[in-house]
Write a structure and sequence with these properties.
The chain is α+β, with helices and mostly antiparallel strands. The chain has three helices and seven strands.
Length: 149
């Protein structure tokens, strides 16, 4: 098994790239309402999400992050700095980049960069599924706000 890796996926979204980027950049307080089954709290200090480890479970895991934004490329990086999610990893970075595809739609390029602490730590494929589903779930919430404006 690999000790490190990078997963990349594209998630098609109906909302505009600008609206999605704004939501991820500065509207974190809306995450629990937009993803009720995935994120239970979102508290900003450095940044922290509490969420089930796998969709459909009630076991919550905490992810503490340092958030970095890149306005030019409409990208938000969540750099893991603590919490349960970081227990098996030295590096856990998730990058959400919003790429316009049409006036109303975009693609979210999700990149997950990870490095395990030990050989027997699990690879992070389940977390990749989780972060992809977060991007997709927020699309409905963004569309509701977009249609009001």
């Amino acid at each position: 098994m690999a000790m490190s890796g990078t997963y990349v996926a594209e998630v098609p979204l109906k909302g505009s790239a600008e609206k999605h980027y704004k939501r991820w950049k500065s509207e974190n307080h809306l995450f629990p309402a937009a993803t009720t089954s995935k994120v239970s709290t979102c508290t900003m200090a450095i940044g922290s999400l509490t969420a089930p480890s796998d969709p459909g479970t009630t076991h919550a895991e905490e992810f503490k992050e340092k958030r970095e934004v890149d306005d030019k490329n409409m990208a938000v990086t969540l750099r893991g700095v603590g919490g349960h999610v970081m227990d098996p990893y030295k590096v856990y970075d998730v990058i959400f980049q919003f790429i316009p595809k049409s006036k109303e739609g975009c693609v979210c390029k999700v990149t997950l960069i990870w490095e395990k602490k030990t050989e027997d730590s699990p690879e992070s494929i389940n977390y990749m599924k989780f972060v992809k589903s977060l991007a997709a779930d927020l699309d409905d919430h963004v569309l509701k706000g977009q249609n009001k404006s």
